[in-house]
Design goal:
By secondary structure, this protein is of the alpha+beta class. The chain contains 8 helices and 11 strands. The protein folds into 2 domains: 105 residues, no CATH class; 112 residues, no CATH class. Strand 4 and strand 5 form a beta hairpin. Helix 1 runs antiparallel to helix 2. The protein starts with a strand and ends in a 6-residue tail after the last strand.
Length: 229
């Protein structure tokens, strides 16, 4: 299930779980508009997902993988958020919200940005139907800003996304464009593609960009359900 949490809600969970103080302090620094992407996985499935999604950052995510291995199919909550170059990922047990593991990562070495203005230009020239919907929702923004780009393996992402978002759709989360998004990434094979996530008041958009960040490969939207309580 895909949900989001505001930093204040996330901090309350971490305080209850007695998470390390460094992680709680980092979350406390986040702006209230920063949302944590929250998903529920079997521990073994999450470990596989992380390994496929971040092959070039295996050492960074190693503490999470090691903590997940003994849990087998235990249901866990995976929470992740990023502000500028700071990425925080937290894992809690779903049954009692107890702390499992967390990392704080400086992603400055493997991230680049695209301006919202340039992203909107790419959307205007895209033939993908959902690109027009995304454009209509975002073009009312009066302030330009930088959107983080995350280079990912096209094939690995195409394999990972159905496992992450299909269960959420079955639970009632409105997800549009998933199948077309995955199909376009599969065509790219093992090429590296930059992904951007753009938050809105009702959910978020995910967009995959082509060479030079000048074209749109795929677009999908997620309309969030209620937050984890």
């Amino acid at each position: 299930m895909v949900k989001t949490l505001e930093p204040g809600e996330m901090l309350r969970l971490l305080n209850t779980a007695r998470a390390p103080e460094a992680i709680r302090e980092a979350v406390a620094r986040f702006d209230r508009n920063t949302l944590f992407d929250v998903s529920i996985f079997p521990a073994s499935s999450l470990a596989n997902t992380i390994q496929k999604a971040y092959p070039r950052r295996a050492s960074v995510f190693a503490p999470l993988i090691e903590a997940l291995k003994p849990l087998a199919d235990t249901q866990v909550i995976y929470c992740q958020a990023a502000v500028a170059d700071e990425v925080i990922a937290v894992i809690l047990r779903n049954s009692d919200r107890s702390f499992v593991a967390a990392i704080e990562h400086d992603a400055s070495g493997d991230r680049r940005n695209i301006s919202l203005t340039r992203l909107l230009l790419n959307l205007r020239s895209s033939p993908i139907p959902l690109a027009s919907d995304m454009l209509r929702e975002l073009e009312s923004s009066r302030e330009d800003r930088l959107i983080a780009l995350h280079p990912q393996s096209a094939k690995d992402t195409a394999v990972m996304f159905p496992g992450k978002y299909s269960p959420a759709r079955h639970d009632g989360v409105a997800i549009d464009g998933l199948e077309d998004f995955v199909s376009q990434l599969l065509v790219m094979g093992h090429a590296t593609v930059p992904l951007a996530t753009v938050d809105t008041t009702t959910g978020y958009w995910i967009i995959a960009l082509g060479e030079g960040d000048e074209s749109v490969i795929g677009v999908m939207s997620v309309q969030n359900d209620d937050s984890v309580q």
